[in-house]
Amino acid sequence: MGEFDLIETFFWRRPGQGPHRAVVGNGDDCAVIAPAPGMQLAVSTDTMVEGRHFLSTVSPARLGHKALAVNLSDLAACGAAPLAFTLALTLPRVDEAWLKGFAKGLLDLADEHDCELIGGDTTAGPLAIGITVMGEVPAGQALLRSGAQVGDDLWVSGHPGEARLALEAFRGSLHPGLGTEAFEATRLAMERPDPRVALGVGLRGLATSAIDVSDGLLGDLGHVLRRSRVGVALCLDDLPVSPWLAIRSPDERLDCILAGGDDYELLFTTSPAQRERVAQLGAELGLVLSRIGQIEAEPGLRLWRGASSGASEGRQAVPNRWASFDHFKGAA
Ligand code: ADP
Ligand code: MG
Asked: For the whole model, what pTM was predicted?
């Protein structure tokens, strides 16, 4: 099968299949798209390389899903609605069964988010997937890392930490290991993340700043603090704990939640006056949204336990041992 047959067979949609919103879609030298009037384009790229960003054990369908999901997660963090994406695919060989599974995982998620595959590039080489995604957001309303205000609440969606627990199970570094049910559930979080696109769109005009958690909660929170020139008091007792992490040791649980990575949850700040709206948004989306801290003027990260965020009596400072987190170092 030649390059063009491969592209047409696996990645081009027929009329009636998937979204067709590009002015010029797949098959010309350029695709041409137009955002709706009054909207701005939000653009982001993420590359995944075998061995570095995914394990060879992942199914092709889950890999296709994840390659797009991590890009949609960046759009979500900006409050942008997906429009279209391009796919740069580097393949060691033409494996039709693999391509079929990969395209299905990729295009099912694309269809779910009304995001059209409008072009790409296909080359031979070590397996790598590069995706550039484009979304639209009302002019001036993109959510940025730089907007957190002193006094704002800090929120996180979902249950960060599960993906890291699965990764450590793969690495064989957990004692005791995970049972079958916990392994399959956390493996799903790692291999098939659900990008928080609807949450991002719902946070337009509500969140003062946002970021998606891809490199670990504390690390990504650091980007918001630096860009916004603020600090935070984060209450460890308020962190959402997934059932699979609740039964692990306290150290392992916190390591995974605070410094795990690959979560693709949103971390965002809002004015305390908006608590009800945030709660309502979470209920509408069926998504757990947890208020985990408060933005402060003094730069830096302060960890507490023993009192809910906001209250100052009974607070106990916890040293930040995740500053240069390396608990699992050497395990791989
Ligand atoms: P060019 O030589 O102009 O770069 P290519 O031969 O690379 O064009 O690609 C031919 C057409 O197929 C283009 O429209 C390109 O966008 C599309 N295409 C190539 N690879 C992919 C892919 N992996 N997924 C979707 N479309 C692709
Ligand atoms: Mg090309």
From this structure: 0.94
Q: Tell me, what amino acid is at 246?
A: A
Helices (H), 121-274: 162-171, 180-191, 197-202, 217-228, 243-246, 250-259
Rounded CA-CA distance 7/1 in Å is 10
30 lines ligand 1 (CB under 6 A): no
300 contacts 229 by C-beta, under 8 angstroms: no
Say if residues 163 and 227 touch (Cβ distance below 8 Å).
no
Q: What is the pLDDT of residue 327?
A: 44
Distance CA 157, CA 140 (A): 24
CA distance 21 to 34: 9
Q: Can you tell me the distance from the alpha carbon of 265 to that of 79, in angstroms, rounded to the nearest whole number?
A: 13
Q: Once rounded to an integer, what is the mean pLDDT over residues 222-235?
A: 96
Q: Cβ neighbours of residue 124 under 8 Å, at least 6 residues apart?
A: 90, 91, 92, 93
Q: Catalogue the long-range contacts made by 121-125 (C-beta closer than 8 Å, 24 or more residues apart).
A: 121/86, 121/87, 121/88, 121/89, 122/3, 122/6, 122/7, 122/88, 122/89, 122/91, 123/88, 123/89, 123/90, 123/91, 124/90, 124/91, 124/92, 124/93, 125/90, 125/91, 125/92
Distance (angstroms) between ligand 1 centre and the Cα of 6 equals: 10
Residue nearest to atom 11 of ligand 1 (CA): 27
Cis check for the bond before 82: say yes or no (omega within 30 of 0): no
Q: Is 257 in the pocket of ligand 1 (CB under 6 A)?
A: no
Residue 47 pLDDT greater than 50, yes or no: yes
**136 CA from centroid of ligand 1 (Å):** 23
pLDDT for residue 70: 98
Pairwise CA distance, residues 61 & 104, whole Å: 6
Residue 46 three-state SS = strand
Cα separation, 81 vs 197, in Å, equals 7
